[in-house]
Amino acid sequence: MQITDRNQAIKAIKEDPYNYQELSDDLKNDKDLLMLAMEENKTSLSFASDELKADKELVMAAIKISEQNFVYASDDLKADKEVALLAVSGRGININYVSDQLKNDKEVVIAAIKNNKRAIDLAGDIQYDPEFLKEIEDLL
Fold first, then answer.
1. Taking the model in full, what pTM does it have?
2. Same domain for 74 and 132?
3. Which residues contact 49 (CB under 8 A, 6 or more apart)?
4. Quick check: is 60 in a domain?
């Protein structure tokens, strides 16, 4: 049953944060309802509207709650260096989800490796660059 009333939505989310996925499309665009759901279900961003998944401020807040939320970010935000750095710094394997361009960005790759050495295997062609490998040998 789809929830269309905001007050009912608040009550339903407080009872069970997974009820967020039962909200109408209009209510799934409500940032406050999403943040309420994320208090208990840290990855509620997965059920959010595409509009909220593209909201940089909201996605960055969601990543701070759980780095797993980067997986649900819009493609544009996965190509945003600031968002990507936040995501890979807290969870190195998030490099798997950044844009192809950022998979070859030294700063992003190094931040990911500092969190998880195996992140080098998920980087772009930069992982085969002898100069880059020499630069990061202390991290590996």
1. 0.89
2. yes
3. 25, 28, 29
4. no
Q: Mark which of 53, 81, 97 sits at the end of a domain.
A: 53
* Residue 2, domain extent: 1-53
127 and 94 in a common domain: yes
Burial class (CB within 10 angstroms; exposed 0-12, middle 13-18, buried 19+) of 80:
buried
Residues 6+ apart with CB under 8 A from 58: 31, 34, 52
Tokens representing residue 87 in the block: 């995501």
Report yes or no on 117 lying in a domain.
Answer: yes
At 124 the three-state DSSP class reads coil
Q: How does pLDDT run across 62-111, given as a tens digit for each residue?
A: 999 999 999 999 999 999 999 999 999 999 999 999 999 999 999 999 99
Q: Nearest-CA neighbor of 3 among 17, 29, 21?
A: 21
